Amino acid sequence: MAGGVLFVGPAGIGKSTVLAAATAAATELGWRVVRTRAAASERDLPYVGLHDLIGSALREVAPSLAEPLRRALDVVLLRADPPDGGVEALAVDVAVLEVLQALADRARLLLVLDDLQWLDAPTRQVLEFAVRRVEPSRIGVLAASRELAPDIVALVPEPLELVEVGPVTRPELADIVADRTGRVPSPQRAAELHRLSGGNPFLALELARGDGRHGGQYWDAQQFSVPERYGRLLADRLSVLSTAGRRTVLAAALLSRPTTAVLAEVAGRSGVPEAEEAGILHVGGAAGEAVEFDHPLLAAACRETAGPRAVREMHLVLGSLAADPVERAHHLALGRIEVDAALADEVESAADVAAQRTAIATAAALARDGLRLTPSDALEDRVRRAVRSAEWFVQCGEPADAAAVLAPLLDALPAGPLRAQCLLAHSDTLGQEIADALVLLRDAIRQPDLEPETEIAARMALAQCLGVGGDPDGARLEAREAAAVAQRAGLADQVHAAMLLEAENDLSVGVPLERSEAWATAHGEPQSPVMIYEHPDRLLALAEAWRDDPTEAARLLDGLLRTARERGDLNSEGGLVMHRAEVALRLGDLETARACADRCYRVGADGVRDQMRLYIRAHVEAWQGELDEARRLASTGLAMADAAADSIFGAQCLLVLGFTEVSAGQFDDAVRHEARLRDLMARMKWGHPGALRWQGDAVEAYLATGAVDDAADVTARLWDEADRMGLAGSRAIAARCEGLLHSHRGDLKLAEDSLLESLALMTGLDMPLERARTLLVLGATRRRGRQKASAREPLAQAKEIFSRAGAAAWVARVDDELHRAAGARAGQELTVGERSVAELAAAGETNREIGARLYLSPKTVETILTRVYRKLGV
What are phi and psi of 92, to 5 degrees? Predict the structure, then answer.
């Protein structure tokens, strides 16, 4: 590096984080790094920055300095009293120059100057003199500043690279907040944080840590508190406004899309120009009527400085002016604190309208407001509104708010059908917390006077939990009982949904859909599925993926995902995008798999019940060679699954851990995970071999550790299951496992036959990564049989597939085999002369032409090539 890099951007945008990462990288590369971070409180203290930069290094270079220069530095660094007449500025400049040059002579020197706008003036002046005079190839400068000014640019030597650090994206901001606070913001919270902070990570963290709740139960987009350090500054900006101006900006802060016309109706025509002149609002848009705040935090400051009473009164005014039923209900509900049955009905109706518009978060909040306005003795209305609000909150990714809506009712309701409805809704807020959900659902089914719809829904939810918990028989029984209740009640849609759930359990235990009696009833499309995740196409997609048609599975899932996004059904999207990532892995499309895994995490992660989301992220990381990160994610997911009694995603996390250790060649650790997974799969009775492809990893690990009987047992069971279901892809993996067994036993001919059979079985199937793994084993087997030339072809094919997919760890494994197959045992590498002859021969030149080039006789060239061919196994 020569010259410097200057990062410019507002406070909190991430400049210091970038400098820290660059500093760490430079240190690893052998640079000597000296750093100062200026502070506003120290900008008037002379030479504070200089002390940071060279104070600790002065002792090692001081002996080489002339006495006047050393004395000058001691004085400005407050290590000696100044002489009569003071210190000459030039002496300080030259002294610093010599110190920097001496440090740069020992190792390349990097000056890191953070918050440069606050660096004290004397340090600026001396650095401007010295930095440009040090040998350019030996010094570099990394600097960060909030502003770009000539005196700042002057401190960074040429060639200067200017980098403007702008706002982070919404997904990036969500990741930062999750990493720093331990809580993953829902998509709604992440969107509001991004809007309020303008994409500034520091400000977003300040907002997130304030929690935005004001001590209440619920989260609301308008409840993010203004961070204390900004509150007084923003209040001062608002204090200059007149009464009309304050009413104007408060109304603008409470409206979702404020316009000049509405604001004039609220507070008169003078308010907007006044707020514009004060730099609080600005007017724009195509019609010149849209009103926006100069910064989103000003809107929050308006609400806070106005106070709760003024905010409520303004909501009532805005509600009386609104023509749209949803906006009207929103403002009127927030303007009332007393119970109002008529308004509660209006708000509930508006919630229905919002849901029909797929504004699910708005519908959830309105239903909750309707509940608050409902008289305490209207229990049926209260339960209905609470349950609907909770269902919508879960659907839009806010399970904590859903649980908070239901909690007061569950504490007060007596036994009976209303309590059953609340218990059922509460179980849905628990996500993958299977053990707790089972308790709630069994309690719901035991309630007296249960209505058929509630019993059906509770039994279906119980069936889902039992399936996830590893009890497919219990799940099937509950699904059948739900179907029977629905049949007696004449509820055709519920019969369909229950049979679909039974068909899913049939598939998991190894009954193909075409042989499932339940699927024959279930696969007709229901009239109105509550969640897109419950659509039959999802189960059909799983069946296609498991029988090795991931292309068709991807098509089906993409269609469901489009519908879920159109409806704002985030709860369904989370599960569907996880399945889509799994399918992308089977297709060898790791980039799509990563994008889907990241989306799955952002849609529904909460830091507590994330085993599903961590499993799929870990699987992608493992395939892409990030093995340490894969271990971390899968281990965390496994712990969450164990705590929640979630057998399915416990098994998935074990699968990833086993695969990760096989990828790393850590076979003892792999066996530990595979043995536990093998037992868990047996207990769960999962008989579909295409559901979780763990067998190939298990056989590799068992054989590497000498557990041949275990490897043989896994292989035999896989053959049986694959034959029973007629699955060519699973047969192909079984054939590879058989090839590994033969190779381990020393029968390389049988091993090669099995591996060739594996490749033949994969013909026409979309399973590139599995094909590459078989090619790798085939190449290794031929190499062991001293067929080094024929070994290289499958190895080269395997490398091409793994490289194209970005499977870094497996590319490294193939490279290792290719090196072994190159014919070079110890002492058998090509010499420089042999390599020269070989390269010319490979370029197509004759022995005579090679001899003429290298001053060798054709006979000598022939002899050398014979030796080369022998070494390379040609």
Answer: -65, -45
Q: Give dist(CA 504, CA 521) in Å, integer.
A: 13
Query: Using an 8 Å Cβ cutoff, are 198 and 295 in contact?
Result: yes
CB < 8 Å & 24+ apart, contacts of 716-725: 718/689, 721/510, 721/687, 721/688, 721/689, 722/689, 724/510, 725/510, 725/512, 725/547, 725/688, 725/689
Helix (H) / strand (E) element for 344: namely helix 341-356
Query: Could you tell me the two tokens for 201?
Result: 């990570």
Percent of the chain residues past pLDDT 70, beyond the cut: 94
The strand pairing partners of 524, in sequence order, are: none
Q: Find the angle CA(597)-CA(603)-CA(607) to the nearest 5 degrees.
A: 90
Mean pLDDT within 450-474: 91
Distance CA 786, CA 768 (A): 27
What lies within 8 Å, CB to CB, of 802 at 6+ separation is 769, 772, 810, 811, 814
> What does the alpha-carbon distance between residue 683 and residue 647 come to, in Å, rounded to a whole number?
10
pLDDT tens digits, one per residue of 600-644: 888 777 667 888 999 999 999 999 999 999 999 999 999 999 988
Question: Could you tell me what percentage of the chain is helix, strand and coil, using 3-state DSSP and rounding each to the nearest 5?
Answer: 70, 5, 25
Contact 463, 479 (CB under 8 A): yes
Q: Are 616 and 581 in contact (CB under 8 A)?
A: yes
pLDDT band at 528 (very low <50, low <70, confident <90, very high): low
Q: Tell me which H or E stretch contains 780.
A: helix 768-784
DSSP state of 513: G
Question: In degrees, to the nearest 5, what angle opens at C-alpha 761 toward C-alphas 758 and 762?
Answer: 90
Q: List pLDDT tens digits, range 436-456.
A: 999 999 999 999 999 999 999
- Residue 706, classed as helix, strand or coil, is coil
- Per the structure block, which two tokens stand in for 138? 């030996």
Helix (H) or strand (E) segment spanning residue 290? strand 290-293
Contacts of 94 (CB under 8 A, 6+ apart): 69
**Burial (CB count within 10 angstroms: exposed 0-12, middle 13-18, buried 19+), residue 220:** middle
Angle between the N-to-C axes of helices 308-321 and 296-306, in degrees from 0 to 180, rounded to the nearest 10:
110
Question: Comparing 407 with 165, which gets the higher pLDDT?
Answer: 407
CA–CA separation, 384 and 397 (whole Å): 20
Comparing C-alpha atoms, which of 684, 651, 659, 648 is closest to residue 510? 684
Q: Is 864 helix (H, G, I), strand (E, B) or coil?
A: helix
- Distance, in Å, from the CA atom of 814 to the CA atom of 449, rounded to the nearest integer, reads 65
Tell whether the model's pLDDT for residue 475 goes beyond 60.
yes
Using one digit for the tens of pLDDT, what is the confidence trace for 27-43?
888 888 888 888 777 77
Alpha carbon distance 664, 628 (integer Å): 10
Specify whether the CB–CB gap between 694 and 674 falls below 8 A. Answer: yes
Q: Are 573 and 603 in contact (CB under 8 A)?
A: yes
Quote the distance between the C-alpha of residue 333 and its chain's center: 36
